[in-house]
């Protein structure tokens, strides 16, 4: 049984990860709202990861940081505060969490960290300047810490394309927008949170013990193929 800390397991991709891990592992969730489930293997802390002091946790094998943002505006409409806020929740929150739990994580079994990037780092898309900048920071963090911690803790990131969660609800708000989104992807689809959770499950497993410092695109072909 692994000890898994999820930051952001109340909804979205983090919640899908939490639901998949609960049956076989001990899950510590940290988010402002509680997940909509109680389970003997779940311990929840209601906290704002940026504002509050993170709780001490005695044993940790896996750390997964999910909070992020989708703040799409032309550069002229993005103010400096937009960039700061996106950087805070995507990067600083992850750094704060890693710094807090690394000493415990180092002592874990096959210890690993999973962070989240986005396809918009590799694929230039209009109006993504702020989020792409922040997530590029995540990719740099993964590379750098992967090297620094190579013998002790593995760290990887998943870079999903659009995934059906509350974060993307505005972009997938009606059937026509959903159909357009499917059409835009060469492999004709977009992600469900459970698909992303399966990738996280692999990355934290013993089967991924050779893998660190890497970014995994889950892209339905949008970054990989030009049709
Ligand atoms: N959805 C997409 O289309 C998409 C695409 C590419 C990349 N991503 C990335 O994938 C990751 C997960 O996205 P998602 O769609 O699952 O997001 P989501 O549905 O918004 O879920 C984010 C989770 O983080 C928690 N959270 C947010 N701010 C927090 C804070 N200040 N303190 C503590 N917890 C906080 C939320 O819980 P509370 O609200 O209860 O605090 C929630 O559990 C993000 O990093 C996102 O950038 C998503």
TrEMBL record:
It holds the Pfam family adh_short_C2. Keywords: Oxidoreductase. This is SDR family oxidoreductase. Belongs to the short-chain dehydrogenases/reductases (SDR) family. It comes from the Bacteria. It comes from Flavobacterium soyangense. GO terms for molecular function: oxidoreductase activity.
């Amino acid at each position: 049984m692994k000890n898994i800390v999820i930051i952001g397991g109340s909804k979205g991709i983090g919640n899908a990860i939490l639901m998949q891990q609960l049956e076989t592992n001990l899950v510590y969730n940290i988010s402002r709202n509680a997940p909509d489930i109680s389970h003997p293997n779940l311990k929840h802390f209601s906290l704002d990861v940026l504002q509050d002091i993170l709780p001490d946790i005695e044993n940790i094998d896996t750390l997964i940081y999910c909070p992020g943002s989708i703040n799409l505006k032309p550069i002229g409409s993005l103010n400096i505060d937009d960039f700061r806020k996106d950087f805070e929740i995507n990067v600083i929150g992850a750094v704060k969490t890693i710094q807090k739990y690394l000493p415990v994580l180092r002592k874990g079994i096959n210890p690993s960290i999973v962070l989240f990037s986005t396809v918009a780092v590799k694929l230039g898309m209009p109006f993504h300047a702020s989020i792409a900048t922040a997530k590029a920071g995540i990719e740099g963090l993964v590379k750098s810490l992967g090297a620094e911690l190579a013998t002790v803790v593995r760290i990887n990131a998943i870079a999903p394309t659009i995934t059906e969660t509350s974060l993307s609800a505005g972009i997938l708000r009606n059937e026509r927008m959903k159909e357009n989104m499917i059409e835009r992807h060469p492999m004709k689809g977009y992600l469900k949170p459970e698909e992303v959770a399966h990738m996280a499950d692999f990355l934290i497993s013993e089967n991924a013990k050779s893998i660190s410092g890497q970014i995994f695109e889950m892209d339905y072909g949008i970054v990989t193929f030009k049709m």
